[in-house]
Structures are given as C-alpha cells and as structure tokens.
Amino acid sequence: MHxxxxxxxxxxxAGNVSAAVQLGYGGVVNTMDASTLPPLQYTxxxxxxxxxTPLTGVPRYFSEFYQKNxxxxxxxxxxxxxxxxxxxxxxxxxxxxxxxxxRNEIVASRxxxxxxxxxxxxxxxxxADWKPVKxxxxxxxxxxxxxxxLVTSPPMALLANEMRLELGTTNNHxxxxxxxxxxxxxxxxxxxxxxxxxxVLGALELKKWYCFVVKADWQYQAGNGAVQVWxxxxxxxxxxxxxxxxxxxxxxYTKTGMYQPGQMGIAYRHIYTDFIHxxxxxxxxEAMYKQTPCYKEPAGQxxxxxxxxxxx
Length: 312
Hints:
The protein has 4 helices and 17 strands. The termini are close together. The chain has a single domain (66-307), classed as Jelly Rolls.
C-alpha cells in the first residue's frame, strides 16, 4: 500500500534533525500495518532506526512509535486531514459501554522524561457532530506521569468542557507511591495533597484545528520548573519557578485522543488528532509549530507541495 506525503514535509524532516525535533520518539507515521522491521533489544536502537526512516524511505510504522489504548469495537485509523490539507491524521471513534470511564488514545511509547526541558506539539480537530455534555469534560491530550500505583492526575491535560477548551495542571513535591503500602501513607503524593488549577483557554469551535505547543522544564522540587503553552501560535499560559510534576520512576509521557466519563450518556463520539511531536531542549516554538496542521507555508513556498510516494 502507498501513502502520499508532501515534498515540503520530507524536506522539513531533514531540517528538523538539526533543529532537535525528535523523529525517533514520535511524529509522522504513514502506515498502520504490522511492522516488518526486525525487533531490537534497546530503546536507543529503536530511536536511532526511527530517526533515519524519513530520510531512507522506510515505512514509518505506527507500532514503532506509538501504543494504543482502545477497546474492541472502537477504531483508530489514518485518514486525510478533514480540513483539506495534504497530510494524514488520526481518526478515533469511541462508543459508550456504560463503564465508569472510556478511552481511545495513543501514547508515544518510547518517550519518558523525569526532569529537564522538553517540547511537545499536539493538535485536535472537533468534527461538526461533536456534542458537549454539561459537567462532564473530555480529556483530549495529556502529559501524564509514570506510576506503579495510579493515585494522581496528569501534570498537564487539555479538556473539552462543554464548548470551552480548558488547560488543567496538577503537581506535587512528594513522590508517588512505589508499593501498595505507600498509597495514602504520610510522605507520598495523593490527589488530596496535590495542587491543581484549571484555566479557560477559549471557546471551542467545531470543524477547526487547535494546535498546541508546550515547552516544559519538568521539575518536582519547589522553586524550580517552568511551563509555556501556545494555542494556534498564541502564548496562553506561562509559569516559572513552579514545581510542575511528580517524583516518579520513569517520568512524564505523552498521549492524545479521547478519555471521558462513562456517565456522559453519549453513544458515539469521534475526533481527529495529529501525531505527537517531541522536541529536545532548545527546539523552539517555531520548529514545533511547523509540525502541526495549523502551520501555513509562506506564499512563496506554496509551490513546493509536490507529491512523493512512500512505500507503506
């Protein structure tokens, strides 16, 4: 099977290696087919191989970069951009089964960071038939944290709450529980002892891409850490000298899709998301924003959208 991507995107891949966009950890995939590449032993080996695939023409298999949290009957597929751009994106469906929570998400499977600077780009598109539900927000992307015993909320999440987009942050200077006996014990993080805040970023419009770039200096110690969040190119949130994470065994990782309460009473929902893009320290907003569906090439470069066939 063949997938078509633009020449301009291929050239962007080559330039982004030096710009520190981490193609080995995330980014574009062009096939959902099972990988035919030989298994490797170490994460570093997978990352090196995946960094090279945009330049060598080797298919970028979904399973080389991502894991999926999906139930039987729901779907995850590559489709053309619903806004009409010359690119593929993910289309996810979610049906209600009456359970307490339901999800259809993808996770960048080899990306974890405990402390230090990391850049992320996420994008979501709400279709015309997206229906809001009062008092029941849907989480559409998360910067979560590794936990042996899940007791705390993600350090950062984007919520579709009725017809608003909200940013939620949660943090704690205490370590998360490492064994069953730590859960609820003194000296370990709990939901009740974690600091959290919710900010309205703007109204939720349908049939529109929302593209987010996040610069996170992850720190769980007080007096350290910084976060900046841009939405469609505009800086929406900024915090400095604020611990913004948890002390965990692997650190923070990324996911996008739909996670919602089962009590919403909606039989079917669907959403479009872009790939998860990851950048190392110093990458910058512009380099990350260029990866998203919201980025528009300058008029003088519009002719560079020639098509390239990639085996996939």
